[in-house]
Amino acid sequence: MAIFVGAVSALLPNIGIRATGVAFLGMYTFYLPLVWFLARRQIGFRYSASVLRQAGALFMAGASVSVCTRFSTMIGSTLGLLCATLFALYTVERFSRMADVGGRLGKLTSVSRRVVTLMKLRP
C-alpha cells in the first residue's frame, strides 16, 4: 500500500488522474512476485500448467482488446465483451464442477460446458 500511495503522490502532479492506474499497476508488479516468493518458500507453491495457460489466454485477450481499441472503439468494445463472456462461461463451468447445480443455473452450466468443450479449454 505504501508503494501505491507513494507512486500516486509522486506521479499525480505530472500525469494527473492516470497516476492512480500507473500506481496500481506498480503496486501489483511488486506484490505478485513477493507473494509468490513467500508462498513458494513457506508451502512449496507452484503454478500448475492450466493456470499458466489461463494467464496466457487472459494476457492475450487483454492485449488483443487493447490493440483493437486503438483502431476502433466499437471493435475493441465488441471483442472485449466477447472475451469477457467467454471467460465468464469458462468460470461458471469450472465452478459447476465443484458443486451439483440445478435449475436455471444448471442449464447455464450445461451451456458453459458445451462452449468450453468446443473451445477445447478444459484442462
Task: Report on this structure.
The chain has 123 residues and is an all-alpha fold. 86% of the residues lie in helices and 0% in strands. It has helices at residues 2-15, 18-43, 49-71, 73-98, 103-119. The radius of gyration is 19 Å and the shape is extended.
User: Would you report the number of β strands?
Assistant: 0
Q: What share of the residues lie within helices?
A: over 70%
Order of helices and strands: HHHHH
Q: Biggest β-sheet, characterized?
A: none
Key features?
123 residues, 5 helices
SSE blueprint:
Elements: H1 2-15, H2 18-43, H3 49-71, H4 73-98, H5 103-119
Q: Summed up, what is this model?
A:
86% of the residues lie in helices and 0% in strands. The chain contains 5 helices and no strands.
